[in-house]
Amino acid sequence: MPELPEVNTVRKGFHETVLNLKIIDVQVHDEKIFRNCSGNVFESVLEGRSFIDTYRQGKYFFGDLDDGSSVLFHLGMTGDIIYYSDEEDRPKYERFHIALENDLKVGFNDPRKFARILFLPDRSAYIEEIKLGPDALIISRDDFREIFKGRNTSLKAVLLNQKLIAGLGNLYADEICYQAKIHPGSRAGTLTTRQSNRLHSKMQSILKFAVDKEAYYKVYPDKWFWKWRDEKVEPPGGKGKILKAKIAGRTTYWVEGVQKMVG
Predict the structure, then answer these.
(1) Residue 150 falls within a domain, yes or no?
(2) What is the mean pLDDT of each run of 10 residues along the chain (263 residues)?
(3) Strand, coil or helix: 233
(4) SS3 annotation, the chain
(5) Do 198 and 244 fall into the same domain?
(6) How many domains does the chain have?
(7) DSSP class per residue in 117-157
(8) Global pTM value
(9) How many CB atoms lie under 10 A from the CB of residue 112?
(10) So what's the pLDDT on residue 241?
(11) Which entry of 88, 157, 256, 259 is 20 to 30 Å from 38 by CA?
(12) Which of 84, 107, 129 is the last residue of a domain?
C-alpha cells in the first residue's frame, strides 16, 4: 500500500499538472470508490471549478477547489493518477476522469477498487473528524516522544497507528526500526528519550530521502533494510539473523542481535 513518500509523489504530480485549469467535464465510470456521494453528484460539483492547491497529511492527499471545498484522493492499495490527452492512452482500470481546459485528462486508475474518493466541503473538519495524527515528515522531536509515553502496545503498533502519527506503513516502519536498532516488538512506553530521539531522526531522514527521490525504490541505498529484508541472505557485514513474525497484525522483519528489544 502506498505510504507517505508514494502519496507525496502523486500529490506533487497533481500539483504541477492540474492547478488553476478549469474543469470542463467529469466522467464517472464506476462509482464504487466514492464514499460520501454519488458519481452524478461528484460530476456536478467539480464541473466548472478549478483546483487551486494541494495538501497532504500522512497518506491522505487532498485537492483544494476554488470554492473552498476539497477532494480527498486516498489511493488505497492500487490507486494512481494518470494524465493523458489521447483516448488510446486511457488507463485500463480508470474509474473516473477529469477533463481540463487544456485538453488534458486526469484519470483515476484503480484495478482493485480499494481507493476512497470523498468530496469535502471542509477539509480541516474532515481531518479533525477522523482524528488523523500529525504528519510523520514534519512532527517535532518533542511531540514524537510524547506519543510513546505510557503506551503498553508494541513500537510497531504505534508507528502504524494513523491517529497517532500519519504516513507510515509496514515497509517504512520496519526500515525505521532497523536503522534505529530497536526491535519493532518493543513496548512503546519503555523507550528512553535517547531511543525515541534516534527513532525520530531516522524516520525524518528516511522519509526525506524517499520524498526527494520521489519514492523511486531502485535508487534507495543498498544498505537499507528495504533492499534485502525479505531475502534469504545475510545482513550487510554478516551481523545477526533476519527474523520475521506477526507484530501489530502485520508481517514484520528485524535482525536478531542488531535490533534491541526494549521493555
Answers:
(1) yes
(2) 95 98 98 95 98 98 98 96 97 98 98 96 98 98 97 98 98 97 98 98 98 96 87 70 94 93 93
(3) coil
(4) CCCHHHHHHHHHHHHHHHCCCEEEEEEECCHHHECCCCHHHHHHHHCCCEEEEEEEECCEEEEEECCCCEEEEECCCCCEEEEECCHHHCCCCEEEEEEECCCCEEEEECCCCCCEEEEECCHHHHHHHCCCCCECCCCCHHHHHHHHCCCCCEHHHHHHCCCCCECCCHHHHHHHHHHHCECCCCEHHHCCHHHHHHHHHHHHHHHHHHHHCCCCHHHCCCCCHHHCCCCCCCCHHHCCEEEEEEECCEEEEEEECCCECCC
(5) yes
(6) 2
(7) EEEES-HHHHHHHTT---BTTT--HHHHHHHHTT--SBHHH
(8) 0.95
(9) 10
(10) 86
(11) 88
(12) 129
In which domain, by residue range, is 220 found? 141-256
Give the per-residue pLDDT at 48: 98
Cα 260 to Cα 263: distance, rounded to the nearest angstrom = 10
Residue 37, domain CATH = 3.20.190.10
List the strands of the sheet with 70-74, edge to edge: 51-57, 60-65, 70-74, 116-120
Residues 29 and 68 placed together within one structural domain of the fold: yes
Please indicate, yes or no, whether residues 72 and 179 belong to a single structural domain of this protein. Answer: no
Is the same domain home to 103 and 149? no
- SS3 category, 17: helix
Residue where one domain finishes, among candidates 71, 105, 129: 129
